[in-house]
């Protein structure tokens, strides 16, 4: 059962933050604000000035940084970047017996590979993901997800909770946090791409983006209930089309494609969606709902 924690504890155990992009700086600032002794390091120098002014310790090297604390939180662009730092021989030696929490975004397979590497080198390892923007870090609105050994998570939970918000431990499969992250990013980026496309189509028809936005928000407001119902159908394998059969969905998708292309606007994303719907219909499932696409995509 995932552990969900929202309280913040007084923490004195030091932490190191590696990676001082916007999110890494926000993490370090939140630790400092909570009174956590914080060491910082970034491959590109010059990003730690404000943090040092606020009390952070500047490490000269990555080896020095990880040696400064029992817990190192890594937040870089991806696992290629984190591997380049952590798998340096000197850094790996300094990490032995210490814990890494990797909050960098990447795939479940990469998380599992990193955990195998860590275990082979005596490094304790947790994976995680940050599900909210930099502005939420250190506030009750931040959302973090974690995966890996339960006892190790519980050991470092008080320090992690200094980052504010909600922390959920998803289980001991080290790739689980990345799996959630990838799936949720799939929703976000697909939705945002659809919104950008919708704004382009609306503009071509003389509708300003700010005019459409309130109606777009109305679409967003109905999605939570749609998500819950669709999830139940997928888990149950029912794929009901009683309210909106996929034939109807395909028809309205075609309207979007026609209008887009009449203005010279690329409709590739919607064409891909319509193609999936037409495949479902072609297989004799025209009375099912759009959720039947999940079954189509999940075949191996």
Automatic annotation (TrEMBL):
Domain 6-phosphogluconate dehydrogenase NADP-binding: 15-171
InterPro entries referenced in this protein's UniProt entry, alphabetically: 6PGD_dom2, 6PGDH_NADP-bd, HIBADH-related, HIBADH-related_NP60_sf, NAD(P)-bd_dom_sf, RedAm-like_C
Keyword tags: Oxidoreductase
Gene Ontology molecular function, alphabetical: NADP binding; oxidoreductase activity
Domain NADPH-dependent reductive aminase-like C-terminal as annotated: residue spans: 173-298
Pfam families cross-referenced by the UniProt entry: NAD_binding_2 (PF03446), RedAm-like_C (PF21761)
Gene3D superfamilies from the UniProt entry: N-(1-d-carboxylethyl)-l-norvaline Dehydrogenase, domain 2, NAD(P)-binding Rossmann-like Domain
Protein family according to the UniProt entry: Belongs to the HIBADH-related family.
Record's protein name: Dehydrogenase
Native source species: Streptomyces venezuelae
């Amino acid at each position: 059962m995932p552990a969900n924690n929202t309280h913040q504890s007084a923490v004195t155990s030091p932490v190191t933050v590696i990676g001082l992009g916007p999110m890494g700086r926000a993490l370090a600032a939140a630790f400092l604000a909570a009174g956590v002794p914080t060491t910082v390091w970034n491959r590109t120098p010059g990003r730690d000035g404000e943090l040092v002014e606020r009390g952070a310790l500047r490490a000269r090297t990555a080896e020095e940084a990880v040696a400064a604390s029992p817990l190192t939180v890594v937040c870089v662009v991806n696992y290629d970047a984190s591997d380049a730092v952590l798998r340096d021989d000197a850094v790996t030696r300094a990490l032995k017996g210490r814990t890494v929490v990797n909050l960098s975004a990447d795939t479940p397979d990469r998380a599992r590979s990193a955990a195998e590497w860590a275990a082979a080198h005596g490094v304790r390892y947790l994976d995680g993901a940050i599900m909210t923007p930099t502005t939420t870090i250190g506030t009750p609105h931040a959302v973090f997800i974690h995966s890996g050994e339960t006892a190790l998570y519980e050991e470092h939970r008080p320090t992690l909770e200094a980052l504010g918000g909600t922390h959920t431990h998803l289980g001991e499969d080290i790739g689980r946090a990345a799996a959630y992250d990838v799936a949720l990013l799939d929703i976000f980026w697909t939705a945002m791409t659809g919104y950008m496309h919708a704004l382009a189509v609306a503009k071509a028809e003389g509708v300003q983006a700010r005019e459409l936005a309130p109606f777009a928000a109305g679409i967003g407001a109905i999605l939570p209930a749609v998500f819950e119902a669709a999830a139940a159908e997928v888990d149950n394998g029912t794929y009901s089309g009683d309210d909106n059969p996929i034939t109807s969905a395909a028809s309205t998708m075609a309207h979007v494609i026609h209008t887009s292309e009449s203005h010279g606007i690329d409709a590739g994303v919607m064409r891909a969606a319509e193609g999936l719907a037409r495949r479902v219909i072609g297989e004799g499932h025209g009375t099912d709902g759009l959720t039947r696409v999940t079954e189509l995509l999940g075949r191996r």
